[in-house]
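Journal club side-thread
Mid-discussion, someone asked how the predicted structure for our own chain would compare to the paper's figures. Pasting it here so we can look after the session.
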Amino acid sequence: MWYLVYNILLLIASPVILAVLWSKPRCRRGLPQRLGMMEPQSPPDGKPLVWVHAVSLGEVVAVAPLVKELHRRHPDCRFIVSTVTETGREAVEQRLAGVAEHRYAPLDFPWVVSRTVESLCPVLYLFVETELWPNLLRHLNRRGVPTIMVNGRISSRSFARQVWPLVRAFYATMLRTLTLCLMQSERDAQRIMTLGADPRKVKRTGNLKFDQPAPALRESPHAVRLLGLPESVPLIVAGSTHQGEEEILVDAYCALSRVHPEVRLVLAPRHIERAEQVEAMVVAKGCTVRRRSTVDSGAPRLEPPAQVTVLDSRGELAGLYQDAIIAFVGGTLVPVGGHNLLEPAVCGKPVLFGPYTDHCAEIAELLLQSGGGRRVSASSLTQDLVELVTQPGKRSHMGGAARSVVDQNQGAMGATVEAIESLFVSSSSSTTSALSRTPYPIMAGR
């Protein structure tokens, strides 16, 4: 019954969904694949195909090392990573070149997922965090394809909606199709069991984001090469920012720059199509500004360098965190829920964030407890920045504590790989790895 209701509602909404996708140039590119219009993917050599779904940039970053490790262990398997967004596609092509192919995720219409699954013929389906698509999971289950949630998490906001009796009943039906739920924390494990997952299929493996590789040392800073800034310039990098908090950040920076005019600010909007809007806001606040895209365009460099640089490029934020003296992670001063706090922490930088950290609650708490992170507000941000700019010893201590949080909480990769490996069996008569079609040996939660 639940699938019938879901599909009726989906069918009613389909004209709006298709119109929205067609109206957005960044979605139009992958529309044929989203609608299941793709050539058959099963190669003539019969290599088993592992399908990994990571909705966007953050999920791709988290799962890329896992995909590389599985590819290393099983070179005779093909790997496809699907995403919903363009930033996700670009991350797959940059981080997994030669390891995995990219596909756009199918819309969850029954006929679309059926066609996609029949075309890809996956032997294993992994999906990152909580990308639960009812029709896709149901179709994979009917074909006997093992489905595993990796790096699973359930935010407080989502959990509050999903515990409603009718919604919870639908979730329980859907969760019963999963082979295994590998959750980030004990809180996430308890929540998914409350929603109806079989406790025997739930395992706490930790957060894959802690196992991101440390950035390689560079001869020249990204700020010099990418932004045209002098190497000695103290840099504050605010990553994955949203409308509303960018204004707060610029106001705080303007107050800081009156005392420390040598400091520069990088604003990296979460959605780079907002770069022009952010640039106009900075100008209205009275600061000099330039966009990253103009650095290599032949436009004359400003002397002195612009106070604020708007990062309107993809794939460069992590490198700029390495050059920062202070990092701020966005989506936290406005009620979004926060983005990747570990990206600057792995670089050994002081991590500032606002009160809205539901999407990264465990990491935020660890950073606060260690002293590697600091929760700020619109009213305290200026004072926090002034304090850290003027106290290099404090910055160094915070950066070291942030990096220690990363080091002390690694291990999710090994636990996740171990659980997934239980589905792989080696054929004694062939060098090709294949996936067991026998029932999965259920693992008890811990």
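Post-session note: Confidence is low (pLDDT under 50) at residues 426-434, 436-446.
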